[in-house]
Prior knowledge:
Blueprint: H1 14-19, H2 31-48, E1 59-60, H3 81-93, E2 96-97, E3 103-104, H4 114-131, E4 143-151, H5 152-155, E5 159-163, E6 169-174, E7 178-186, E8 193-200, E9 206-216, H6 225-229, H7 235-243, H8 253-262, H9 265-268, H10 272-282, E10 288-295, E11 301-307, E12 321-323, E13 330-333, E14 336-344
Parallel strand pairs: 1-9
Antiparallel strand pairs: 2-3, 4-7, 4-14, 5-6, 7-8, 8-9, 10-11, 11-12, 12-13
Helix pairs in contact: 3-4, 4-10, 7-10
Amino acid sequence: MNTNPRRPDQPVDHHELAEMLPAPGRPVLRRDRHRVLREHLMEHTSNSSETVHERSGPTNTSPAPRRPGRRLVLIAAPLALAAVVGAGAVAVDAARDDGKGGTTATGVGGANTAEHRQAAQLLDRIAVVAADRPAVTVRDDQFVYTRSQGSSAIWGGPSKPVRDSKGDVTGTKVYKGNVQSDEWQPVTGKRDGLRRLTALTPDGELDPSRKQDIAMAPGTGYLTFRQLQALPTDPDALLRKLESGNGVVKSRLTETVFENVGAVLDQATLLPELSAALYRAVAKLPDVRVVKNVKDGAGRTGIGLTYTNRGNPSKTTSGYWVFDSESLAYLGTNRSALLDVAVTDEKGEVTAVGAS
């Protein structure tokens, strides 16, 4: 996640710097990927459509972009049991277990390989599930609420100032363990958003004594909900937009598109047609592969999707999307589990409308 740099003429205030708690970005998506996605998709969407229809704990008011990335349990209408089981069997056959509880992607060829066809078939079934979700009506004054879970290393918090015997701040202490992240992103992106990080106990319970609120300034981070609405829902047209723009290296095209799509999947689940189009667009990428027995950030096991590093086919990539092996619902990534997604009227409101 990007932060606002100090101006050259601004004096260093060590006390202020110590008070400013870190607000890193979402997992998987790197800054260059984020920049390419935001700048070029914003250019396309602005040309095509101008409009489409705090609590306890320390608070950091520094701007914090939105995220890799994102992720929550997406409740979608399941396919018929036979179709779901068939998809799972195809997906599992396309990958092999490494024997140590991990996963290894198989296949290194082009778009016509059996491995790619199996991945494309799975993605098409996932798209059917995604498209079957009910559409959500969202107002400009509302917030898109997401809840996710993963290691504190992903978000760099919660953290709190460390003080010496005189009460002076000498640094910050970051909680090390699993964390729940609640985010409220403004629909239009014109207001501040909020990220709330809460530590989880070894039993998975929230620890209110270890909580941190981080302000998310407008104009930073990923595409807003309204900008997502302006994207095309035709997979071919959508893929052309995802591939376009300076800075997209052809040899890393699959990696770029895969990570950029992953960064917006959480909000896109509220837009069924777009969500389905994103999966079908990714299915056209030649290096996408299926894996099995992948765990998400909450430890849930499912079917995974990743991509082969064309420059080094024997190297396993570190980023996976994870789907429930029966319902094909999106669970998140191997780093961050998506637990909920909905729309709320107020920032900081946890009781979400239409959540799982």
